[in-house]
Design a protein that fits this description.
By secondary structure, the chain is α+β, with helices and mostly antiparallel strands. The protein is built from eight helices and four strands. It starts with a helix and ends in a 6-residue tail after the last strand. InterPro entries: H-NOX_domain_sf, Heme_NO-bd, NO_sig/Golgi_transp_ligand-bd.
């Protein structure tokens, strides 16, 4: 997993729980990397999982909520650091459509060894059906993806009803996000 994920997780922990909490997490989990993360490094994703579980143990915040919150944080960071992707897309659904065939292509140019989740989508066949975003990964971070989706919709000031269906096949975690726009109503 790329180091930017670890450095941003550290930033989130410090901002929400304080520097001491981050130090405590690193001491308790004793990561193989030593916990000295750089944004361009590559680290075992299990180090992140271990820190999230330890953070849950120390705060009683559910693991899924911590991962979702991190997804929201990461989405805000990405919208600042990689604003051209967001500006180019223009809205949430257009952005989600270009994850695999544009954004991840560019990420792989910068980080050829990056192990990225797979995303595909299904357009609704009628106006009443939701847009479906399909996620697959051996890492099982659908909660992170959901936080990223929420952060993206906030960036564009759009609202969606979001439902999901999760399942595992072998070692691959799958999720379909059913995304339905909520029309703004005038008061």
């Amino acid at each position: 997993m790329k180091g930017i994920v670890f450095t941003e997780f550290s930033t989130m922990v410090e901002s929400l729980f304080g520097e001491d909490m981050l130090d405590d997490l690193l001491d308790a989990t004793d990561p193989a990397s030593g916990g000295a993360y750089t944004s361009v490094g590559t680290y075992d994703h299990k180090e992140l999982v271990d820190m999230v579980v330890e953070l849950h143990n120390r705060t009683d915040v559910p693991v899924a909520k911590l991962i979702y919150t991190f997804g929201e944080h990461l989405g805000r960071t990405f919208s600042e650091k990689f604003s051209s992707f967001f500006e180019e897309a223009g809205n949430t659904l257009a952005f989600l459509k270009q994850i695999d065939n544009h954004i991840h292509v560019e990420v792989r140019k910068l980080y050829p060894d990056a192990e990225l989740p797979g995303f595909s989508y299904t357009e609704p066949s009628t106006p009443n059906e939701p847009f479906e975003l399909h996620y697959s990964s051996t890492r099982g971070f659908a909660d992170l993806a959901e936080g990223l989706i929420q952060s993206t919709s906030s960036y564009y000031n759009e609202k969606f009803e979001l439902k999901r269906k999760d399942w595992v096949e072998g070692e691959v975690h799958h999720c379909i996000f059913y995304i339905t726009p909520i029309e703004a109503t005038e008061v």
